[in-house]
Structures are given as structure tokens and as C-alpha cells.
Amino acid sequence: MKNLSKNQEAENKNLSLKISAKDENPLTKNQEIFNKLTQKIEKLEKGNVEHFKKLDNLLIYFNANVKPLITEIANVQLRLALILSEQSGKFNFSKNQTEEINKVILKLCNEAFENIEPTDEQEAFYNSRSKTTYKEEIEEQEKNSKEIFVDMLNTMFGDKFDAGDIEDSEDGFMNFQKKMNEEFENLEKNNSKNKKTKKQIQLEKQKEQEEAVKTKSIRSIYITLAKILHPDTETDPILKLEKEEIMKKVTGAYESKDLPALLKLEMEFVHKQCEFLDQLTDEKLKIYISALREQARELEQEKQSLAYQPKYSEIKNLAFLSEKAATLQLSKDVRIFDILKQTYTSQIRAFENISSKKEIISFVKEYSDDYDDHYDDEVSQMDDFIKLMLKSTKKTGF
């Protein structure tokens, strides 16, 4: 038995799955496909780790530099809304003017509430000027968004979904996404059943047989490794601990059907380097190729869906930029938000010393003209959410 040192573990991690041509004999077609797939998977795995790290770095930058400014702006907007309310109360306005002032006050509050949770005092101020309370509006928006999306899904799948299935948590989101993906897969299967030819039926049966053999093959590798690496077979306490750690990786790879990881472990602890890969039969290569293709698709889908996790919702528009370009965009946002904060602060100072209602009317008109409301239309309310959910269903192949 090999000594399970950290150096050997590092070698195993860096071990590349590649079939080499022997003598002057060229690689077979399946051997070439195997090599391309294992290289692709290694690249995807590395890319996903880097992508995950990039998103975390961007989120850290956003939380440290951008979010505090957004919060400051929201608080300044609320302060401006309060002062506008106080100062406009000192003058007499027409009914139309009063309504326009109230609209601007509510718009300032709504803009602020998009980025911060209002205090009880701020919520009470908003409720005193709105026909519906803040809580009622939030509940209605959430209800409408979920119902629109669920109606769209039920049109596709029948009455399989309910708005109550969409829970407001990361786990709830992932569970709903899983259910939705399952329905997409079922729909695809049903559609294919209706159009099956004899050849398609034959290919499907062949695929099922290959899947059974593949599962048996993966299990076979797992059992071989478990016999060699199981910690219960070790008396040396240090080696026992090392085996426990490696068996965790073996078990994890087996449970997730991670064939490349199992093959690397098998090469490290059972065979010598890649020699045994050269001896794989064509039939077994086909089985491995099928498993590798499936894993490559899953890794590609993982990258696509990673950026749309709720955790990264505030930076999802930057997810597929390079880290340098995304950081540059965030630094521009910092400058823009800083200018915006200064602008609102200057308006507050101006209102604190206001001396005529003409100044109030002028501000209200200018603010109303410049304000671009993106949330009036139900479809635009749902746009990001629908894209988020449907993006995860995108399937790509090798």
C-alpha cells in the first residue's frame, strides 16, 4: 500500500486523464473523443472554480464600495422626501400641484425602499401619503410576480405549479428550480415519445443498456477503491486519518457520478499513471464517453446557473464580464453614485432654506420629467425573474 502523503494527494489532483498513442499506432476515434472530453471537463472544472471565485470577489467589492453608497443615497432620498413634505406644508398649492408633490415624495420613497428596508417611522410616513400601505404593496407585487410566472409555467406543463411553491429563500428557490427542471425534462421526454421511430426506440434501449453498464462500471471502481482505501483496514493512526479524508472524496465522487475523479483516484491508488487507460476496450470507452458527455453538460449548466443564484442577485449583470471589466464597471458606479449622493444632499440644503413655493414647483416638475419608472408594467416587473429561472434550463452539449 502506498504512503498517502500530501505530495501524492497533490499529484493525484493534478493527474491528467489522457490516452497516449503507442509506437506508430494512431489513437482510435473513441480514444480521441475520450481525451477531448476529459480535457474539456478539466477546463470546465477549473473555469467554474475561477468563475465562483470571481463572483465572490465582485460581491466583496460591491458590498465594500457600492452597497454603502446605495444605502446612503436611499437615506438621503428619504430625508429629501421628508423635507419636501415639511416645506411644501408651509405654502398653499392647487389640487393638481399638491398631487404632483405627493407623487414625487412617494417616488423618492419607492426608490429608497428598493435598496433599504424602511424603519417603522419611514414606513408610517409613506403610508400617510399613499392610498395603500407599504406592506400591502410589497405583498401585492410578490403575489403578482409569482402568479404571472406560475401561469406561464402552467400554460406549458398543465396545472403542475402553484405560486406558493416559490419560497422566499435560497433553498426554496433551488427546490422550485429543481421541480421546474424536472418538468422541462418530462415535457421533452413526452414530446420525443410522440414522435419516436423504430430506430429511436432502438437507440433509446441501447442508451438504457449503456447507462446500466456505466453505473455498474462506476460502482466497480468505487468498490475497488473502497477495498484499498477504507480506513477500517488501517492500523496506523496517521494513515487511518489520511484514508478517512481520501474515502470522503471517493464517496463524494461516487455519489455525484464523477467519473473523471474516480478514474484519477483509481490511477493513483490502483494502476500506474495512465497505462490502464490505453488498455480500455472500445465498448468500455463508449460507456465512459457517455458519462463524460453528461458531466460536461452538467458543468456547463452549473456555470450558467451560478450567477443567477440569489446570493449574487446584485451583481448578476456583471457575471459574464471578465473580473477586470466588472471591477472597472463597479468603480464607475461608485463615481456615479457619489455624484448622485452629492446632488441629493445639495437639494436638501436648498430646501432647508427655501423661501417660495415657486422653487418647490420647479423641483417637482424637473424631478418628474427626469424620473424613469421601470416598474409600472407587470411584464417588466417579471423580466429579470423569468430570465433567471429559464436561464437555468439552458442545455448545451459537447
Query: Which structural category fits the helices and strands?
Result: mainly alpha
Instruction: Please give the alpha-carbon distance between the first and last residues.
Output: 38 Å
Number of helices: 14
As a percent range, the share of strand residues is: under 5%
Succession of helices and strands: HHHHHHHHHHHHHH
The level of helicity is over 70%
Unreliable spans: 1-14, 372-398
| Count of beta strands | 0
Note the main sheet.
Answer: none
Overall 3D geometry? elongated
Write down the Rg: 30 Å
Mean pLDDT: 77
What features would you describe in this structure?
This protein is mainly alpha-helical. The chain has helices spanning 6-14, 29-88, 95-113, 120-129, 134-157, 170-194, 198-229, 237-255, 259-269, 275-278, 282-306, 323-352, 357-370, 378-391. The longest helix has 60 residues, at 29-88. The protein is elongated and about 95 Å long. The two termini are 38 Å apart.
Primary descriptors:
398 residues; 14 helices; 74% helix
Quick structural gist:
This protein starts with 5 loop residues before the first helix and ends in a 7-residue tail after the last helix.
SSE arrangement:
Elements: H1 6-14, H2 29-88, H3 95-113, H4 120-129, H5 134-157, H6 170-194, H7 198-229, H8 237-255, H9 259-269, H10 275-278, H11 282-306, H12 323-352, H13 357-370, H14 378-391
